[in-house]
UniProtKB/TrEMBL annotation:
Residue intervals of the NAD-dependent epimerase/dehydratase domain: 2-233
Catalysis: reaction(s): UDP-alpha-D-glucose = UDP-alpha-D-galactose
Record GO biological process: galactose catabolic process via UDP-galactose, Leloir pathway
Cofactor(s) required, per the database record: NAD(+)
Name assigned to this protein: UDP-glucose 4-epimerase
Source species of the chain: Conyzicola lurida
Amino acid sequence: MRALADAGLAPVVIDDLSSGFREFVPAGVPFVLGSILDGELLLKTIEEHNVTGVIHVAGYKYAGVSVQRPLHTYEQNVTGTAVLLAAMAEKGVDRIVFSSSAAVYGTPPTELVTEDTPKSPQSPYGESKLVGEWLLRDQGVAVGLRHTSLRYFNVVGSGTPELYDTSPHNLFPLVFRALGDGKTPKIFGNDYPTPDGTNVRDYVHVADLAISHVAAAKRLDAGLPVETAYNLGSGDGSSVGDIMRAVADATGIDFEPEIAPRRPGDPARIVAAGELAARDLDWEMRHSLHEMVSSAWEATRRAS
């Protein structure tokens, strides 16, 4: 929202607040309380606010929990997207940026993921995001919808100190919570073929993601060509050990993480290439790992 406003665009927010917070919406930004499953509300909002494009970030994002709640996940992520696209088509809104996920790749056959890497999602969440991409593709054929999907792994950090990560499942909040409770964070396996023996993954700062979402929206507005999907990745990643050391440095809490056994099926290294997004969407890793952790820690402390 802040990135859109800073770019001279006029956002309007629809959120059912199932996981969001009303106070996170900046003053002056129109806010509509409701779900994307409510087609009538979407039609009314599009008309009242003269909506010309959509950035679709409304989704149920917990991959692990989606295994226990597959029907809920599909309702929110697939049915919700279909209802949104139907409302857009009825009102003539012909452009959308879709927040997809690197979960569409599942456990890829290579360590470096490109947009052409085979899709093999391994959770209802990943499957629902892939179906969302298919819906956009098919609406593109049917009604000329202009669209692109942005895929990424772990979103971390805080863009401003008053916005903190509220997820009960994300890595940074889990580590901060453990330290706050006097517990020792865990690393699952330290014998992988990586520089420090721990898993390597992509961690990208939320503010960097916001910049590329805005760039994608502006590119669609300008009628410029876009890829159907872009990876927003670092190309090299950070290890879980790196994360723990950065947490200790940012928080000033000296700790040695507990080493637990490997989790079954956990690959040693998965990171995404970001060259296409760098070419088209102003994508770059503007924040160091330390900045990612310290911004998240500052926001968490301010909220507590």
